[in-house]
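USER: My hope is that you can spare some time for a protein that puzzles me. I am handing you a single protein, as its sequence and its fold in C-alpha coordinate form. Walk me, if you will, through where the backbone shape changes along the chain. The protein I mean follows directly.
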Amino acid sequence: MKKLFFISIIYISFYSCASSQVEEKSIQKYYFYFDKTHPKMEVYGNKKELKHLYRLTYSDHVIFIPYDSIEKEIKIKKLKKYKIKDYDWLFKLNNTGVGQFFIKQIPKKEFYLIEKRESNKVLYLRRVSFIQEYE
Protein backbone atom coordinates (compact mmCIF):
# COMPACT_ATOMS: atom_id res chain seq x y z
CA MET A 1 0.00 0.00 0.00
CA LYS A 2 2.85 2.38 0.86
CA LYS A 3 4.52 1.64 -2.48
CA LEU A 4 1.35 2.51 -4.34
CA PHE A 5 1.05 5.76 -2.41
CA PHE A 6 4.66 6.79 -3.16
CA ILE A 7 4.33 5.83 -6.83
CA SER A 8 1.22 7.97 -7.16
CA ILE A 9 2.97 10.96 -5.51
CA ILE A 10 5.96 10.58 -7.84
CA TYR A 11 3.65 10.31 -10.86
CA ILE A 12 1.74 13.47 -9.86
CA SER A 13 4.94 15.45 -9.31
CA PHE A 14 6.37 14.39 -12.70
CA TYR A 15 3.08 15.20 -14.40
CA SER A 16 2.93 18.69 -12.88
CA CYS A 17 6.55 19.42 -13.87
CA ALA A 18 5.92 18.29 -17.44
CA SER A 19 2.77 20.39 -17.79
CA SER A 20 4.47 23.56 -16.48
CA GLN A 21 7.24 23.21 -19.08
CA VAL A 22 4.69 23.01 -21.89
CA GLU A 23 2.97 26.19 -20.66
CA GLU A 24 6.24 28.15 -20.62
CA LYS A 25 7.01 27.29 -24.26
CA SER A 26 3.66 28.57 -25.50
CA ILE A 27 4.33 32.23 -24.59
CA GLN A 28 4.56 34.49 -27.63
CA LYS A 29 6.48 37.76 -27.38
CA TYR A 30 5.46 40.83 -29.35
CA TYR A 31 7.64 43.89 -29.73
CA PHE A 32 6.25 47.35 -30.54
CA TYR A 33 8.37 50.25 -31.69
CA PHE A 34 7.68 53.44 -29.76
CA ASP A 35 9.14 56.82 -30.73
CA LYS A 36 7.92 59.66 -28.53
CA THR A 37 8.89 62.18 -31.21
CA HIS A 38 6.27 60.65 -33.55
CA PRO A 39 3.18 62.92 -33.74
CA LYS A 40 0.80 59.99 -33.04
CA MET A 41 2.73 58.63 -30.04
CA GLU A 42 3.01 60.20 -26.61
CA VAL A 43 4.06 59.44 -23.06
CA TYR A 44 1.93 60.70 -20.19
CA GLY A 45 1.24 60.00 -16.52
CA ASN A 46 3.43 60.20 -13.46
CA LYS A 47 6.82 58.52 -13.01
CA LYS A 48 5.31 55.59 -11.12
CA GLU A 49 2.80 54.80 -13.85
CA LEU A 50 3.87 56.06 -17.25
CA LYS A 51 1.55 55.35 -20.14
CA HIS A 52 2.72 55.01 -23.73
CA LEU A 53 -0.06 55.98 -26.10
CA TYR A 54 -0.50 55.13 -29.77
CA ARG A 55 -3.22 57.42 -31.16
CA LEU A 56 -4.78 55.33 -33.96
CA THR A 57 -7.88 57.43 -34.65
CA TYR A 58 -9.84 60.04 -32.78
CA SER A 59 -11.60 57.40 -30.69
CA ASP A 60 -9.20 54.42 -30.73
CA HIS A 61 -6.02 54.35 -28.71
CA VAL A 62 -3.60 51.61 -27.79
CA ILE A 63 -1.92 52.19 -24.45
CA PHE A 64 0.94 50.28 -22.86
CA ILE A 65 1.95 50.60 -19.21
CA PRO A 66 5.48 49.41 -18.31
CA TYR A 67 5.67 46.75 -15.60
CA ASP A 68 9.02 47.90 -14.36
CA SER A 69 12.18 49.68 -15.35
CA ILE A 70 14.13 49.18 -18.56
CA GLU A 71 15.08 45.54 -19.09
CA LYS A 72 17.97 46.16 -21.46
CA GLU A 73 19.47 48.45 -24.03
CA ILE A 74 19.38 47.42 -27.67
CA LYS A 75 21.78 48.70 -30.29
CA ILE A 76 20.14 49.68 -33.57
CA LYS A 77 22.29 47.18 -35.46
CA LYS A 78 20.79 44.29 -33.45
CA LEU A 79 17.21 45.41 -34.00
CA LYS A 80 16.71 43.03 -36.93
CA LYS A 81 16.48 39.98 -34.67
CA TYR A 82 13.21 41.31 -33.15
CA LYS A 83 10.03 41.03 -35.18
CA ILE A 84 8.79 44.53 -34.46
CA LYS A 85 5.26 45.77 -34.87
CA ASP A 86 5.15 49.44 -35.77
CA TYR A 87 2.53 52.19 -35.86
CA ASP A 88 1.40 51.28 -39.39
CA TRP A 89 0.78 47.66 -38.31
CA LEU A 90 -1.36 48.83 -35.39
CA PHE A 91 -3.22 51.35 -37.55
CA LYS A 92 -4.27 48.59 -39.98
CA LEU A 93 -6.10 46.76 -37.20
CA ASN A 94 -9.66 47.96 -36.76
CA ASN A 95 -11.20 48.28 -33.29
CA THR A 96 -12.30 44.63 -33.26
CA GLY A 97 -8.89 43.46 -34.50
CA VAL A 98 -7.08 45.34 -31.75
CA GLY A 99 -9.30 43.77 -29.11
CA GLN A 100 -8.90 40.27 -30.54
CA PHE A 101 -5.14 40.57 -30.84
CA PHE A 102 -4.44 41.99 -27.38
CA ILE A 103 -7.18 40.50 -25.23
CA LYS A 104 -7.24 36.97 -26.61
CA GLN A 105 -4.50 35.20 -24.67
CA ILE A 106 -4.35 31.80 -26.36
CA PRO A 107 -1.45 31.26 -26.76
CA LYS A 108 -0.25 33.44 -23.89
CA LYS A 109 1.28 36.74 -25.01
CA GLU A 110 3.84 39.10 -23.56
CA PHE A 111 4.18 42.65 -24.83
CA TYR A 112 7.33 44.72 -25.02
CA LEU A 113 8.11 48.25 -26.14
CA ILE A 114 11.28 49.03 -27.96
CA GLU A 115 11.51 52.65 -27.01
CA LYS A 116 13.42 55.35 -28.84
CA ARG A 117 14.33 58.32 -26.74
CA GLU A 118 16.88 60.98 -27.52
CA SER A 119 19.63 58.80 -28.96
CA ASN A 120 19.61 57.34 -32.44
CA LYS A 121 22.14 54.68 -31.43
CA VAL A 122 20.48 52.98 -28.45
CA LEU A 123 16.91 51.80 -27.90
CA TYR A 124 15.38 50.56 -24.66
CA LEU A 125 13.41 47.35 -24.16
CA ARG A 126 10.58 47.46 -21.60
CA ARG A 127 8.03 44.79 -20.71
CA VAL A 128 4.53 46.22 -20.61
CA SER A 129 0.91 45.42 -19.99
CA PHE A 130 -1.74 46.48 -22.51
CA ILE A 131 -4.86 48.52 -21.98
CA GLN A 132 -7.19 50.15 -24.43
CA GLU A 133 -8.93 53.35 -23.43
CA TYR A 134 -11.60 55.42 -25.03
CA GLU A 135 -11.81 59.16 -24.50
Observations:
- The longest strand covers residues 122-131.
